[in-house]
Design a protein that fits this description.
Chain lengths: 124, 363
């Protein structure tokens, strides 16, 4: 449910650092709370955000929620698959359901995030 | 304070995600809104709607009292017939929309929205003092189940002891039993599908639910929550109080002309509505389909050529049509089918087109 190799935020995003960039998505808990995701509003590649900034919006049938940057950075890739298959956020939140990839501005900020165990504690 | 409906334990047992709604703990979903929605369109779904309010009118002047309160004409109802109607303020704004059941010559039942229950009860009491009629608020002791979908009749017939073919659309039967329990069954609903609504005292409604659930297994009966109830009514173009109806919106603006009988003797709001009819409405409800990617939501502004011409009253992804659709209240010159509108969704201005309501009609 909460892979060990990821870092987590209070806002229920995960981040995974891979080959110099970092993928960002929503956790299993978040997708369960949202219900059927039907639309994701993505930022443009090249946009820069501070840690905690809203970079997009995820909509389920009934709800509209902001997406927040786990750490400061620049958008280097967006998941084009979200346009036609936003349900990937529900079905495969840590795989096909990734939302953006970013270039992290300050790797030190990762230390402020939670590991899997700490995140799961916040859900209890 | 939040109350539990008599079926609360069932929601928990069946895995419902329970939320607070209009003072009640009710499931917003079980399997997921889209799955529940599709089950009702294609098979059969069951909803706990015990939160709805019920007022019974009895006595020699019950009809007169009802007639003063509602905009539609209850005198035209035969015994066992059901009517949909707005209930208006003197200025034509809407107190609530409701169903009126004629249970006898001098006996009527109002079924009102849970969110308006206290306000409605006060309104009904204040405005019926002059009549020789006894009005009782039965909301707390009455449970209600909606069984909806093309297979609803087939399922219900297995446990209902009278012929459901005899209950036509917007008629009721108060003489049948389910699981040995007396109940009122009407062919009504809020989904755009065939289906029934079943009323019984709290203690009986649990047994009735259990009988429906047990029998429902062979029909893949889907328990449904408030989420699917909303998307289903939305596709069917049925108004929801607080969205398409409010004290600031009159029924003629809300496409409810056929539920307002201005030829009837006086009722609260009649003078104001006569004036609206004479002058014509300045704005009205219309359906929209998004051309750009985005979901219209309640309160988003509607614009034409940079000018604000209205607002979104409801909007969602439509599970049946798989499109992003909305209902808007706009100046009437922009409400024609085919009109192009812009919807302001956060920072963006997106293209939409006016389409016919309802979005979905059953075959």
């Amino acid at each position: 449910m909460y892979p060990k190799e990821l870092k987590y935020t209070d806002d229920h995003e995960w981040i995974r650092v891979e080959n110099g960039k970092a993928y960002v998505g929503l956790t299993h808990y978040a997708q369960e709370q949202l219900g059927d995701v039907v639309f994701v509003e993505l930022p443009d590649v090249g946009e820069e955000f501070e840690m905690g900034d809203s970079f997009g919006v995820v909509e389920s049938v009934k709800t509209v929620s902001d997406l927040f940057m786990p750490v400061a950075g620049k958008i280097v890739e967006i998941n084009e698959g979200m346009e036609d298959s936003p349900e990937a956020v529900n079905e495969d939140p840590y795989g096909e359901g990734w939302i953006v990839a970013i270039e992290i501005e300050d790797k030190g900020q990762l230390d402020q995030l939670m590991d899997s165990e700490a995140y799961q504690k916040t859900l209890e | 304070m939040t109350s539990k409906t008599p079926l609360y334990e069932r929601h928990v047992e069946l895995g419902g995600k329970v939320v607070d709604f209009a003072g009640y703990k009710l499931p917003v979903q079980y399997a997921g809104i889209i799955e529940e929605h599709k089950a009702v369109r294609n098979g059969v779904g069951v909803f706990d709607v015990s939160h709805m309010g019920e007022f019974e009118f009895k006595g020699p002047q019950a009809l007169e009292a009802v007639q003063k309160l509602i905009a539609n004409n209850a005198a035209k109802l035969k015994v066992n017939q059901v009517l949909y109607t707005p209930m208006c303020y003197p200025d034509g704004g809407v107190v609530d929309d409701l169903l009126v059941y004629r249970l006898g010559e001098d006996r009527f039942l109002f079924v009102v929205n849970a969110a308006n229950l206290d306000k409605d009860w006060k309104w009904v009491q204040e405005n019926t003092k002059e009549f020789d009629a006894e009005i009782e608020n039965q909301s707390q002791k009455t449970g209600q189940i909606a069984l909806q979908g093309p297979r609803a009749q087939e399922l219900l017939q297995k446990i209902y002891d009278r012929d459901l073919d005899n209950i036509k659309f917007f008629w009721l039967d108060a003489e049948g039993k389910i699981a040995g329990r007396d109940c009122i069954v009407s062919r009504t609903g809020y989904t755009g599908e065939d289906g029934f609504e079943i009323y019984a005292p709290n203690e009986a409604i649990v047994e009735i639910f259990d009988a429906i659930w047990e029998t429902g297994k062979e029909f893949n009966l889907q328990p449904c929550g408030l989420g699917a109830r909303d998307t289903l009514r939305f596709e069917a173009g049925l108004p929801l109080y607080g969205h398409e109806l409010s004290p600031e919106i009159n029924p003629l603006e809300a496409r409810l002309k056929i539920f307002v009988d201005l030829e009837k003797d006086d009722f609260i709001g009649r003078d104001a509505l006569l004036e609206v009819r004479e002058k014509g409405v300045e704005r009205r409800i219309a359906g929209i389909e998004m051309k750009d990617k985005g979901i219209p939501r309640q309160g988003y502004p509607v614009e034409v050529d940079g000018e604000e011409v209205g607002f979104v009253t409801s909007g969602t992804f439509s599970p049946t049509l798989e499109k992003n659709l909305g209902i808007v209240m706009v100046k009437k010159e922009f409400a024609q089918t085919g009109s192009n509108l812009n919807i302001r969704i956060r920072k963006r201005l997106l293209e939409a087109e006016v389409v016919k309501l309802p979005f979905y009609k059953r075959r």
